[in-house]
C-alpha cells in the first residue's frame, strides 16, 4: 500500500494516486499542512456536491436526461483528459505518444484486457448510483453508501487474506447498525416524497452499487498490483472500456428512446455540471488525496454527510428526525473509527497517555497492511464517482 500522511498516521493514497513518502513526526512543513486542509476541503465538496447535483437534476420538473448518456459522456471526457495529460508528458510529440500507446495498449494486450472486468463493474456502478440517487434523498443515499466500506473490507479479507483489527470489526458492526436505522427511518416515511420515487428500488440500487464498489476495488488491486503503468495510462485504458461498455448499456436500456429523442435530450447547464463534476472531480481528488491521510479522509466523509444533510433540508425539504440523526451519527463514528491506523487504535485501547510520546508503531514483518477505504471508483472520499486510477502499488 502506498503510504502518505504525517506523524504516525498510516494511510493509503487515493485509488492509484502516486504516493508521497510518509513524513517523520515533527517534519510536516507549513505548506504541506495547508495542502492537507485544502485536500480536506476538496474531498468534502466533491463528496457532497456530486450527490446533491445529481439529486437536483433528477428531481427537477420537465424533461429528464438519460442517465446512461451522462455516464458515457463522463467516461469520454475522463479518457480525453488522460490522453491530453499523456500527450503533455511526451512533450507534445505525437509520434512518441502513438508508439507509447501502441506498446502499452496493443502489444501488452493482456494487461489491457485485465481492466475490462473492473471497467464493466464501475460502469454498472455509476448507472446504479443514478438509480439510487433518483429514488433516495441525498442524505439517505450518502449515509447508506458508506456500506461500501463494509463490502470492501469483507472482499479484502476473502480475496487478499487481510486481517481486520477488533476495532475495525466493531466499527463495521456500528456502520451496519447505523445504515439499518437510517433505512428503517426511510421505510417509516421520513417526510414527504415525490410519487415517482421508490425507496425500495433506491435501496436495492445502492446496495448493489456498494457490492460492486467493494469487489471492483479489491479485484483491481489483486490483478494489477505490481503493474508499472502510469496513473493516466491506466485511467485511459479504463476509460476506453468504460465508454464502450457504457454505450452497450445505453443501447440495451434506453437505446430506442435515445435514438428517438437524441443523445443530449434533457441536457441543461446543471446536467453538464454533473457530467463535468463526475469526469474531472474524481481526477482532481486523485491528485489532492495524496496529501490527506486516512483520518483526514474519514473526517471528509463525515463532514460531507453533514453537509449533504444540511443542504438537503434547504434544497429538498428533507426532514431530519431523531432516528435519522442516530443512524447518521453511528455511521459517522464508524467511518472515523475504521479510518484510524492500527497502531493508533491499539494506543487508544491500551494506553491513551502514550499518544504524547514519539510514534514507534511499524507494520510487523510479513503482516498484510490493514484494509483501507475503497474507491472505487469511486469511493466518495475518493467517492462513488471517483477516478479509476492506480500506480505501481495501488492505494485504496
Explain what the structure shows.
- The protein is 66% helix and 0% strand.
- The chain is globular.
- The chain has 14 helices and no strands.
- Helix 1 runs antiparallel to helix 11, helix 2 (67-89) runs antiparallel to helix 10 (231-261) and helix 6 (138-144) runs antiparallel to helix 12.
- The longest helix has 31 residues, at 231-261.
- By secondary structure, it is mainly α.
Query: Biggest sheet: strands, sense, closure?
Result: none
Helix content: 55-70%
Which radius of gyration do the C-alpha atoms yield? 21 Å
Q: How many β strands by DSSP?
A: 0
Question: Treating each run of at least 4 consecutive H or I residues as one helix, how many helices?
Answer: 14
Q: How far is the first residue's CA from the last residue's CA?
A: 8 Å
Shape: globular
Order of secondary-structure elements: HHHHHHHHHHHHHH
Characteristic terms for this protein:
disordered C terminus; globular; 14 helices; 396 residues; mainly alpha; disordered N terminus
List the helices and strands and how they pair.
Elements: H1 30-59, H2 67-89, H3 94-107, H4 109-114, H5 116-135, H6 138-144, H7 147-160, H8 166-187, H9 199-224, H10 231-261, H11 269-288, H12 294-316, H13 322-339, H14 342-350
Briefly characterize the structure.
The protein has 396 residues and is an all-alpha fold. It has 14 helices and no strands.
Amino acid at each position: 500500500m502506498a503510504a502518505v500522511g504525517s506523524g504516525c498516521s498510516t494511510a493509503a493514497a487515493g485509488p492509484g494516486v502516486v504516493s508521497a513518502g510518509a513524513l517523520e513526526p515533527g517534519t510536516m512543513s507549513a505548506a504541506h499542512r495547508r495542502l492537507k486542509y485544502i485536500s480536506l476541503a476538496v474531498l468534502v465538496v466533491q463528496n457532497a456536491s456530486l450527490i446533491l447535483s445529481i439529486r437536483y437534476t433528477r428531481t427537477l420538473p420537465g424533461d429528464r436526461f438519460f442517465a446512461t448518456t451522462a455516464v458515457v459522456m463522463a467516461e469520454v471526457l475522463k479518457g480525453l483528459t488522460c490522453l491530453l495529460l499523456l500527450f503533455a508528458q511526451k512533450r507534445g510529440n505525437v509520434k512518441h505518444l502513438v508508439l507509447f500507446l501502441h506498446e502499452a495498449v496493443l502489444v501488452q494486450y493482456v494487461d489491457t484486457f485485465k481492466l475490462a472486468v473492473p471497467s464493466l463493474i464501475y460502469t454498472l456502478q455509476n448507472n446504479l448510483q443514478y438509480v439510487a440517487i433518483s429514488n433516495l434523498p441525498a442524505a439517505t443515499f450518502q449515509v447508506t453508501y458508506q456500506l461500501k466500506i463494509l463490502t470492501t473490507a469483507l472482499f479484502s479479507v476473502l480475496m487478499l487474506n487481510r486481517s481486520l483489527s477488533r476495532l475495525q470489526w466493531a466499527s463495521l458492526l456500528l456502520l451496519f447498525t447505523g445504515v439499518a436505522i437510517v433505512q428503517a427511518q426511510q421505510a417509516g416515511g421520513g417526510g414527504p416524497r415525490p410519487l415517482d420515487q421508490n425507496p425500495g428500488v433506491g435501496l436495492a440500487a445502492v446496495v448493489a452499487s456498494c457490492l460492486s464498489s467493494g469487489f471492483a476495488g479489491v479485484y483491481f488491486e489483486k490483478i494489477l498490483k505490481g503493474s508499472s503503468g502510469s496513473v493516466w495510462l491506466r485511467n485511459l485504458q479504463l476509460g476506453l472500456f468504460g465508454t464502450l461498455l457504457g454505450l452497450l448499456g445505453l443501447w440495451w436500456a434506453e437505446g430506442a428512446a435515445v435514438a428517438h429523442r437524441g443523445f443530449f435530450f434533457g441536457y441543461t447547464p446543471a446536467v453538464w455540471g454533473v457530467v463535468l463534476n463526475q469526469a474531472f472531480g474524481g481526477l482532481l481528488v486523485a491528485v489532492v488525496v495524496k496529501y490527506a491521510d486516512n483520518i483526514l479522509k474519514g473526517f471528509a466523509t463525515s463532514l460531507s454527510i453533514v453537509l449533504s444533510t444540511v443542504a438537503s433540508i434547504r434544497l429538498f425539504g428533507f426532514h431530519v428526525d431523531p432516528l435519522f440523526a442516530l443512524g447518521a451519527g453511528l455511521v459517522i463514528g464508524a467511518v472515523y473509527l475504521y479510518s484510524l491506523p492500527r497502531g493508533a487504535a491499539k494506543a487508544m485501547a491500551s494506553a491513551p497517555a502514550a499518544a504524547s510520546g514519539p510514534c514507534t508503531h511499524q507494520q510487523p514483518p510479513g503482516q498484510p497492511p490493514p484494509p483501507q477505504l475503497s474507491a472505487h471508483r469511486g469511493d466518495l472520499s475518493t467517492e462513488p464517482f471517483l477516478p479509476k486510477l492506480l500506480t505501481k502499488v495501488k492505494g485504496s
